[in-house]
Every structure is written in structure tokens, then in C-alpha cells.
Design a protein that fits this description.
- The protein has helices at 6-15, 19-26, 29-46, 50-62, 84-103, 124-133, 149-164, 172-175, 195-202, 235-239, 245-250, 253-256, 273-284, 297-316, 332-337, and strands at 65-68, 71-74, 112-118, 139-146, 176-180, 225-228, 289-294, 323-328, 347-353.
- By secondary structure, the chain is an alpha/beta fold.
- The chain has two domains: 6-63, no CATH class; 84-353, Rossmann fold (3-Layer(aba) Sandwich).
- Strand 3, helix 6 (124-133) and strand 4 form a beta-alpha-beta unit.
- Helix 2 crosses helix 3.
- The longest helix is centred in the first third of the chain and has 20 residues, at 84-103.
- Bound molecules: S-adenosylmethionine.
């Protein structure tokens, strides 16, 4: 990695003595300022002694770690650094799971929960979900899937590290697993397994099979939560200045831009191809909740449209399900309360099967 110019470090220090340590990781002053703002907001939420906490967080970050909820996520070149927006979407997903468990009027401790995190990267979503939901679910299985062996290795290390630090319950050692598969693969001859192919063996929960529809076009495994932050930037936006230079230079393209496809499904933009595959899987696995991170509100609306078309096609073939689909955060209040810009920045699409 090229050295940062001393003048840049000095200017950053003059602005705020905490900036240089962040600058070494973020590589641009704009990103370092943003990161400092997120960390300050978190420190203020976490502790009345927030200045001490903030200094510790910055030191940690300069060692290559990233706070994610109550966890510390180890980062390394070649794997996307987790973002605070993703942390907010993960928290929202956990909230919905808790609400669902409560509304079923059953003690959630006796329930089972099957979670699939596609495109897991550092494993941040899978691990934080374990921390948030494991106290309420006795039988829990969280699978994180990625195509990149580098990411899977790091995710595994993050599991071990957070167990070691006592940030995760011991049960995470068996209840969270990381597995290699290709979200875009339809099967056939590829050497990397498909997601559908790996699921039955991974979720050995001994649940009676649901007989909700019994159709052969559904997967054997029923998912409770399907969550993903997939690559979603178009090749054009990656190069035309929409994606900042520091992100382009230091984040892996595999994590950001979907690979070119020989043919695209109807009504699907090249950058939305992961959503197409994940929505199909969500329908086939009768997922109770699906949470998909999107780059902005426009992309989130596009994902909602894709889901509508797929469910309409299903209804025409006699298989009608009811869904509650929403974009989060959406209202001014939701944005303000969760630190999102009202018009700009990432959103997630939340799909609940009713
Ligand atoms: C945007 S990153 C998200 C990482 C992490 N979930 C997070 O939120 O920080 C997308 C991830 O998708 C993975 N990926 C790219 N193509 C894939 C594919 N065809 N199948 C599975 N994972 C893929 C990348 O390796 C990368 O880790």
C-alpha cells in the first residue's frame, strides 16, 4: 500500500488529532472524516465517557479492526470493510425477528431459526445477528456464504476472534458456519457449488418438513431470515466518479460490482443481477423475512419492482402468497433516528411473507 504524504497526515492532525489513525485505513480525508463522525456517534451512544471510548475505537481501527455493533471485525485488504449502514440494517433485521417471535405468541426460546447471509464478506452480518438473536432462540443456525476464499478465511477468523474476546456466546462456535458457494450459479458443471446445493446439509435442525405447498419447485430448506449485502454497483458508476477513488483503489471490485452476464433476465439491470437470484431463492425457500441492502432508494424501488413481477408470475401459476414489502429507512423520522440522509445513501428492502 503506498505511503500517505506527510503533509496530508499533518493537515489531518491539525484538523483533529484522531484523523491520522483513521486516514491510514480510509486512505482519503473525506472517508476518514466520515468514519470519525460514525465512530463519534457510536461512542456517544455507548458511553458517557465517550471521548475515551472514541480514542480506543480509533486506535482499534488503525490496527485494521472495525466496530460492528458490539463486535470487533478484523479487516484485511481484498475483503470489503463493513459499513455502519450495514450495521443498521442488521439491527433492523434482528428487531423484526424478535417481533415475529413475540407475535407468534410462543416463547421464542423454544423456537428454531434458520438464517442465511449471502455475500458474507468479513462475516459481520452473520456474527452480529448471532449476538443479537441467540439469547432468544434455542436452535439457531446461521450460514454465511461467499465466493471468495479470502473472505471466508477472514470470516472464520472473525468468528474465532470475537469468541475469544467474549463478544459472542460460546454457542456461536457451532451455530455460525461459513461456506463457499456462488450466488449467481444455476448449477450445471461449475466447480463452485450453488447456494441451493449446499443448504440441506447445513441446516440439520430436525424440523418436520413444512407442507405449506409441497411443490417440487421449492427448496427443501425453509429459511426464516435471508439477508444480503451483495455487490450492487454498476460498472459505469464504478469508473465514472460516482464511486470515490479511495473506494475504487482499496476495496475489492469483486465485492462491489457484479460480473458481466451473458444474458440478463427481463427487467433486470446488470447491477441488480444478485437481487434477481436472491429474490428467486427467497421465494423458493419460502423465506419468512428477506432483507436486502441496496445502494440507494432508486435501486431499492427497482428491487421491489422485481419482487412484484416475480410474485405476480407465481400467482398466475396458482401459487399466491401475501407479502409485506417496504423500504427502510423511508420516512423522515426513520432516517433521522437512524443517522441516514433523507434522499441519499443506502437503503434496505424488507420483505415479510405473511
Ligand atoms: C458488498 S460485499 C458485502 C460484504 C459483507 N456482507 C458486508 O456487508 O460488509 C459483497 C460480497 O459478495 C461476495 N461475492 C461476490 N460475488 C459473489 C458470488 N457470485 N457469490 C457469492 N458471493 C459473492 C464478495 O466476495 C463480497 O465479500
Amino acid at each position: 500500500m503506498p505511503r500517505l504524504p506527510t503533509s496530508l497526515l499533518i493537515n489531518a492532525y491539525r484538523e483533529n488529532p484522531l484523523l491520522p489513525s483513521l486516514l491510514r485505513e480510509c486512505r482519503s480525508l473525506v472517508s476518514a472524516r466520515n468514519e470519525l463522525r460514525w465512530l463519534r456517534e457510536r461512542a456517544q451512544r455507548d458511553s458517557p465517557e465517550w471521548r475515551t471510548r472514541l480514542r480506543a475505537m480509533c486506535r482499534q481501527r488503525s490496527k485494521g479492526d472495525q466496530p460492528f455493533g458490539e463486535l470487533e471485525i478484523l479487516c484485511e485488504r481484498g475483503v470489503l470493510i463493513p459499513r455502519s449502514d450495514t450495521e443498521s440494517f442488521t439491527n433492523e433485521a434482528a428487531k423484526i425477528i424478535h417481533e415475529m417471535a413475540k407475535s407468534k405468541n410462543e416463547p421464542s426460546r423454544t423456537s428454531d431459526l434458520r438464517v442465511l447471509d449471502l455475500c458474507t464478506g468479513t462475516g459481520c452480518i452473520a456474527l452480529l445477528l448471532h449476538q443479537l438473536v441467540s439469547p432468544n432462540f434455542k436452535h439457531l443456525k446461521i450460514i454465511g456464504v461467499d465466493i471468495s476464499p479470502l473472505a471466508l478465511n477472514l470470516a472464520q477468523r472473525n468468528l474465532a476472534y470475537n469468541l475469544e474476546q467474549g463478544y459472542l456466546a460460546e454457542s456461536a462456535g457451532t451455530q455460525v458456519q461459513f461456506q463457499r458457494a456462488d450466488v449467481l450459479s444455476q448449477g450445471s458443471s461449475e466447480s463452485i457449488p450453488t447456494v441451493e446445493g449446499i443448504l440441506p446439509k447445513l441446516y440439520e435442525l430436525d424440523l418436520p418438513k413444512s407442507n405449506e405447498t409441497g411443490s417440487e419447485i421449492e427448496t427443501e430448506v425453509r429459511l426464516d431470515l435471508l439477508i444480503s449485502n451483495p455487490p450492487y454497483i454498476s460498472n459505469k458508476d464504478f469508473w465514472n466518479g460516482t464511486t470515490s477513488r479511495s473506494v475504487r483503489r482499496f476495496e475489492p471490485q469483486l465485492a462491489l460490482v457484479p460480473p458481466p452476464q451473458p444474458a440478463l433476465p427481463d427487467e433486470c439491470n446488470a447491477e441488480d443481477i444478485f437481487y434477481h437470484h436472491i429474490l428467486r431463492l427467497s421465494l423458493k425457500s419460502l423465506a419468512r423475512v428477506t432483507v436486502l441492502e441496496c445502494g440507494d432508494i432508486m435501486q431499492a424501488r427497482q428491487v421491489v419492482k422485481m419482487h412484484d413481477s416475480m410474485t405476480q408470475a407465481l400467482a398466475q401459476s396458482g401459487r399466491e402468497f401475501k407479502f409485506d414489502v417496504r423500504i427502510w429507512p423511508e420516512t423522515e423520522r426513520e432516517c433521522a433516528e437512524n443517522g441516514f440522509h433523507l434522499y441519499d445513501g443506502a437503503r434496505c428492502v424488507i420483505i415479510r411473507r405473511m
